[in-house]
Amino acid sequence: MEEILSKTKIFNNINKTEIKLLLQCINNYQKKYKKGEYILKEGDTTDYLGIVLTGKVIIERTDLWGNNTILGAIFPGEVFGETYAYLENEALMINVLANEDTEVLFLNIKDFIKTCPKACNFHTQLISNLVTIASIKNLNLSRKILHTGPKTIRGRLLSYFSECVKKSKSLSFSIIYNRQQLADYLSVDRSAMSNELSKMKNEGIIEFKKNHFTIIQNEELDAN
Question: Which keywords accompany this UniProt record (predicted)?
């Protein structure tokens, strides 16, 4: 497992030998989840952050009427739940579920910040990595706020596609969400969004097949 963890962001600049020692200092356990199974649910509390070893995890929020909002996706090597684990007895405002068969390693975050009885100097690196991850997540949340800012569905799609083009440095790119997840992420109705995508395709603005998109005309992206 140390080989897998050495490639994750939270163990960045920590070698496999040090990771093995860290796991002896930090309470941890592994668990497997089937596709669609909840890992954490709204209202739960946790002392553990999760590291996705295999599979994919979706972070979502469901309101009283059953409407879902996708807040993000977590891939192998990435973490979730660190904020709630750090804030003692803070109830989750979100649901965490496996988007496919998934394996997770859980680490007790309290063991990160307490003085290590073995004086492991790489605890400091671990804390630094955790701060970096939290900062990146804050940026991703800011991006989502920007994408849901426009009033129209087309405006939200163009905002999201613009980011995809910039990140991939190409007018052709694949997105991480299926149609329902994309609609939830942008906080729009799926049918209305699908209709808008079809209009954009008919107008020669985009081409797409499943989750792969190509921007044909990028004037609207530039204007957006």
Answer: DNA-binding, Transcription, Transcription regulation
